[in-house]
Amino acid sequence: MSIGQAFLGLLEARPRHGYDLKRAYDERFGIDRPLAYGQVYATLSRLLKHGLVSVDSVESGEGPDRKRYAITDAGVADVEQWLAQPEKPEPYLQSTLYMKVVLALMSGRAAADVLDTQRAEHLRLMRELTRRKSAGDLSDQLICDHALFHLEADLRWLELTAARLDDLAKDVRP
């Protein structure tokens, strides 16, 4: 996810301080991985340098000055362009899991065990996401659904691969 574009989108609603941006980002997008403050201010600095945000006001206090940032017209255009571009689908053609299965087969290890271990981990995560989804708001439900659908596709691949292990072993064993 592009933190810069997320900040620009959040700034479209109103100017904000770095702390407020971090909090809004973490509440909406960073529940599992909140931003570090250094990342917030590095991103704001980059956006400022590129003319996508400006300093709306500066408040003096006991600590360092607090800057409030506002999106510029160039920033609005950047967000519009970013939103209009589709995300590239990730085909997973270089899957680490596939690599583990092939290497297990090549070495004579039990590739079925690799698949079983992975299946158990997927199911564990699916249970966790289902609990989170049931207790969450609509935003949390949607992001959990996205992750659950990907995990379901992975499980289908695990089952298909398990059914084809003998044939794959013939292809990869020396």
Automatic annotation (TrEMBL):
Organism: Dactylosporangium matsuzakiense
Pfam families assigned: PadR
Residues annotated as domain Transcription regulator PadR N-terminal: 8-79
Official protein name in the record: PadR family transcriptional regulator
Stored InterPro entries: Tscrpt_reg_PadR_N (IPR005149), WH-like_DNA-bd_sf (IPR036388), WH_DNA-bd_sf (IPR036390)
